[in-house]
């Protein structure tokens, strides 16, 4: 019979810390995630302790040490998530700063994040195409074109579905293609559109070895399986044929498109600010995972499809939980809006910094008002949601502005600070400059005219919050999810509590560092180490 193997033992590095058995000493070592961690047993008392670094050896003559129960390698925040995310997009961290509309995710924010090794998206939704072009110009001047193959820092732009303004959607897609914007965050899509499909497959080609290469990357923001499926499968051939016929795709690009999904990166959005279905991440994410795996098996895709977790990511615990679900990356939104680089006014940011977990509410969405779509916004300190909901109720129950009662008419005019006629005149002027077809439709359909007037309030309310208009403070529309309240509770009493200290990079670094520490705590607990409860409460600190 062969002899039993000698037990593995651990000894501390000469001059280094010895094994920690007391909870206080264990806790002091928990955050050293960049050192290998070894769980050992005291043979005299059977107590379980923690050693950092040190050496492993087999016990034997002249070799003594603590018997080993298990060891963990070093863990860096950069190693959380899917390594292919960084390889494909050139980001150091599997962390995305979301595209907050109307330029709230400013170019300054994207530049700061990109230079720090994160992926940032410019909040182009709701901006005039000329403003989008100016944003792209600044990003390219500061960061290059974002092509990882050229070593450029990584960045992208928002691309929002605009069912009421299809011409604007097509114009922005054309701008991104012509200017070489490599990544878009496709938001609010319920189905595929031709401009989106055109962007997704422009520049796709197959090399001599048969490998397919994509020029453009779509990050599909989804919260429903049926919408996710449309992005995970190739587009309809009829749509591709139309694009080829118009010269917007080549025949070769269309041929390859039938073998590829529309998007290979997905933002699985749970309960979040802005457009949201309020689904819990722990229910939504596994459902989309299963769908992804089924479609990959059915289609035989070779290129990976990555799933990112969004909505509710406002603490290191939430980020760690998302990675434990299998998220390839995480995305933050609400917490960035309160940062100094945000396009939101100081007054608006101050309101966000005071928000609690329950200080959010659903309100009508300006861009999909007639469809009854809602967005999640801040409730504390603003009456926007209540007033917006009343406008939607009036729209639902009346055929025109002229049919409003005197009381309702007085409410609308007080809210708009204009007479009905003045409100339509200013609304008409806006749409004549943006899309005259909307004016033509409104002048034929009194209900559509009413919708445009009401949408003017909804649309301007977010811009009042951005500009910090003093006499409109009670009407600020500030997109916000429960992550903001969780972040505020986590940051309370730390250097991140004051609004002026909140930078997107410090927020991101603390969330990822904390996620690594909490992940390490879970791992050590699974090896039998009595982990103190406070090990799961990583507190913000300035990180270089």
Explain the overall architecture.
The chain is of the alpha/beta class and 544 residues long. Helix content is 42%, strand content 15%. It has 20 helices and 18 strands. The protein has helices spanning 23-30, 83-89, 107-115, 129-143, 166-179, 194-201, 225-232, 237-245, 251-257, 281-299, 316-324, 334-337, 346-353, 384-397, 406-416, 420-434, 436-444, 446-467, 482-491, 504-526; strands at 8-11, 37-41, 48-52, 55-58, 66-72, 95-97, 119-122, 155-160, 183-187, 205-206, 212-213, 217-222, 265-269, 274-275, 306-310, 329-332, 360-364, 374-378. The protein has an eight-stranded parallel β-barrel with strand order 6-7-8-9-12-13-15-16, surrounded by eight helices. A five-stranded antiparallel β-sheet has the order 3-2-5-1-4. The longest helix is centred in the last third of the chain and has 23 residues, at 504-526. It is globular and about 95 Å long.
Number of helices: 20
E-strand count:
18
Strand order across the biggest sheet? 6-7-8-9-12-13-15-16
Quaternary state of this entry equals single chain
Gap from first CA to last CA: 57 Å
Silhouette? globular
In terms of DSSP E residues, the strand content is: 5-15%
Largest sheet: 8 strands, parallel, barrel
Give the % helix: 40-55%
Structural class: alpha/beta
- What is the residue-averaged pLDDT? 94
């Amino acid at each position: 019979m062969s002899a039993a193997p000698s037990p593995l033992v651990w000894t501390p590095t000469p001059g280094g810390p010895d094994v920690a058995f007391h909870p206080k000493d264990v806790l002091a070592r928990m955050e050293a995630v960049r050192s290998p961690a070894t769980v050992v047993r005291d043979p005299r008392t059977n107590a379980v302790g923690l050693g950092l670094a040190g050496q492993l050896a087999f016990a034997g003559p002249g070799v003594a040490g603590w018997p080993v129960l298990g060891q963990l390698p070093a863990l860096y925040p950069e190693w959380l998530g899917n390594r292919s995310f960084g390889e494909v997009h050139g980001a150091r961290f599997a962390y995305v700063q979301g595209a907050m509309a109307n330029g709230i995710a400013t170019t300054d924010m994207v530049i700061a994040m990109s230079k720090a090794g994160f992926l940032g998206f410019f909040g182009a939704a709701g901006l005039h195409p000329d403003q989008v072009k100016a944003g792209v110009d600044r990003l390219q001047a500061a960061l290059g074109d974002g092509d990882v193959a050229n070593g450029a820092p990584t960045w992208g732009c928002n691309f929002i579905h605009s069912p009421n303004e299809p011409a604007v959607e097509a114009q922005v897609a054309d701008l991104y293609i012509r200017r070489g914007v490599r990544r878009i965050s496709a938001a609010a899509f319920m189905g595929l559109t031709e401009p989106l499909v055109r962007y997704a497959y422009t520049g796709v080609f197959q090399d001599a070895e048969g490998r397919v290469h994509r020029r453009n990357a779509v990050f599909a923001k989804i919260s429903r399986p049926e919408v996710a499926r449309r992005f995970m499968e190739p587009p309809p051939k009829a749509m591709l044929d139309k694009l080829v016929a118009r010269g917007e795709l080549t025949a070769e690009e269309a041929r390859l498109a039938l073998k590829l999904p529309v998007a290979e990166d997905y933002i699985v959005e749970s309960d979040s600010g802005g457009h949201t279905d309020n689904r819990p991440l722990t229910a939504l994410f596994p459902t989309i995972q299963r769908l992804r795996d089924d479609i990959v098996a059915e289609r035989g895709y070779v290129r990976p499809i990555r799933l990112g977790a969004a909505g509710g990511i406002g603490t290191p615990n939430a980020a760690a939980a998302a990675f434990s679900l299998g998220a390839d990356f995480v995305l933050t939104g609400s917490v960035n809006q309160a940062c100094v680089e945000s396009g939101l006014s100081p007054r608006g940011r101050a309101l966000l910094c005071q928000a609690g977990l329950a200080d959010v509410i659903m309100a009508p969405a300006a861009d999909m008002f007639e469809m009854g779509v809602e967005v999640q916004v801040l409730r504390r300190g603003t009456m926007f949601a209540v007033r917006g909901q009343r406008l939607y109720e009036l729209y639902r129950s009346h055929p025109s502005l002229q049919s409003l009662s005197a009381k309702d008419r007085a409410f609308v005019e007080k809210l708009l600070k204009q007479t009905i006629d003045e409100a339509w005149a200013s609304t008409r002027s806006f749409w004549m400059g943006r899309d005259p077809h909307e004016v033509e439709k409104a002048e034929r359909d009194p209900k559509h005219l009413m919708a445009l007037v009401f949408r003017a309030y909804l649309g301007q309310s977010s811009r009042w919050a951005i500009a910090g208009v003093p006499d409109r403070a009670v009407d600020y529309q500030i997109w916000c999810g429960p992550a903001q309240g969780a972040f505020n509770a986590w940051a309370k009493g730390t250097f991140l509590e004051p609004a002026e200290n909140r930078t997107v990079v410090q927020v991101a670094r603390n969330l990822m560092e904390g996620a690594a520490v909490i992940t390490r705590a879970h791992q050590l607990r699974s090896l039998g180490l009595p982990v103190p409860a406070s090990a799961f409460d990583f507190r913000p600190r300035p990180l270089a």
